[in-house]
Amino acid sequence: MRVIDVRVGSATHPGLRRRVNEDSHLAEYPLFLVADGMGGHDAGAAASAAVVTEFRGLVGRDSVGIDGMRAALSRARLAVERIGHAGRAAGTTLSGVAITQVDGNGHWLAVNVGDSRTYRFADGELEQISVDHSVVQELIDAGELTGEAAGRDTRRNEITRAIGAGSGGDADFWLLAAEAGDRILVCSDGLSGEVPEERIAGILRDVIDPQDAATRLVHEAMLHGGRDNITAVVVDAVRVAGQDDGDDTSPAAVTSDADEDTRPRAAAGGDA
Ligand code: MN
User: What predicted TM-score, i.e. pTM, was given to this entire model?
Assistant: First the structure.
């Protein structure tokens, strides 16, 4: 039995400046993921697509646990390593949620490598679940940069972990008890780097239908410049196993920092 009943929407667009869309996504129960590829000559698109292909093998299960996620990540890493072009290593971010169960109760198992983002919008508050693997995030953690300055920092596109791109960086995981009314947003930095979080929260609050919300978020990123590929996946929990049946989808507030083209620090790199 599915442990969370969901309604889902997704949208993606190359944006206004780029020829190729190197983002890929998966929005099928029980996996809701975004991958933002990097690497010249379309290697980024191939890398993000390869990762999604590996996770697609888990679609249709009632839930996926951390062992299943780690196994898929290992396969994804191997698949991406096979993609490199002429010495340029392909790479990709990965962020999102798997639906998992703990003692029969529905949970979100969030995963992150790189600077794509997973947020939860609940009780009117937008909360960033994932923590960016980026140079800027490290500087913020060290107290050397404020969130406001981070958005203008020239290093804002340098990530410190990726799948591929010469990175052996591990994924971070978070386990969160799901509640009916939760709205998960997974997005590439073409959204989070372009649109202030207050505006993202406002759209999640106002646009009830998840497909309409995803489409609207992508449009909003283009209105703000559309300098990067843009992907948004919106997942609403309608009913959660282990809870009394509920049915509300609400929304509300935020803070911010952000960017545009993602590249690995040190190793490899390049963009299309
Ligand atoms: Mn990007």
Answer: 0.87
Residue 55 has φ and ψ, to the nearest 5°, of -75, -25
User: Two tokens at 228?
Assistant: 């990067």
- Compute, in angstroms, the gap from residue 36 CA to the centroid of ligand 1: 5
Indicate the pairing of strand 263-264 with strand 158-159. Answer: parallel
- Name the E strands within 47-190: 91-92, 94-102, 105-113, 117-122, 125-128, 158-159, 163-164, 172-177, 183-187
Taking only the tens place, the pLDDT of each residue in 25-50 is 999 999 999 999 998 778 999 999 99
Q: How far is the CA of 81 from the centre of ligand 1 (A)?
A: 20
31-38 and 94-102 beta bridge pairing = antiparallel
Ligand 1 centroid from CA 254, angstroms: 22
**22 Cα–ligand 1 center, Å:** 8
CB proximity list for 127: less than 8 A, separation 6 or greater: 119, 120, 121
Domains plus CATH for the chain?
A: 4-243 (3.60.40.10)
